[in-house]
Design brief:
Radius of gyration: 14 Å
Shape: globular
Number of helices: 0
Mean pLDDT: 97
Structural class: mainly beta
Number of strands: 12
Strand content: over 45%
Helix content: under 10%
Length: 122
């Protein structure tokens, strides 16, 4: 039973900072690259950043490069996202998952958590 539980979102002013956390269970966390995704209303879900299974390499969307930092703790099966210099366009529902997203069972359904809302507004 895969579970992905995001937390840490909230309302923040432009230029502010926020740290998101994701607690994962039900799969071999340390074997998977992990990622943060985000989705704003009316827009497609996009990949924000990912990190290799060991945490040795990271990648970032151009829109967040230099402002966001992804990290993971395989002993705790958690992945975090440090968000600095936040902009209104960062407003979205943020979700964690493997990269590519996990899916399983006979119907090959995708496993997604509820996400955590980040709203950047003055």
């Amino acid at each position: 039973q895969v579970q992905l539980v995001e937390s840490g979102g909230g309302l923040v002013q432009p230029g502010g900072s926020l740290t998101l956390s994701c607690a994962a269970s039900g799969f071999a966390f340390s074997n998977y690259p992990m990622a943060w995704y985000r989705q704003a209303p009316g827009k497609e879900r996009e990949l924000v950043t990912n990190i290799t299974s060991t945490g040795g390499r990271t990648n970032y969307a151009d829109s967040v490069k230099g402002r966001f930092t992804i990290s993971r703790d395989n002993a705790k099966s958690t992945v975090s996202l440090q968000m600095n210099s936040l902009k209104p366009e960062d407003t979205a529902l943020y979700l964690c998952n493997a990269d590519p997203p996990l899916r399983g069972g006979p119907r090959r359904r995708y496993f997604w958590g509820q996400g955590t809302q980040v709203t950047v507004s003055s």
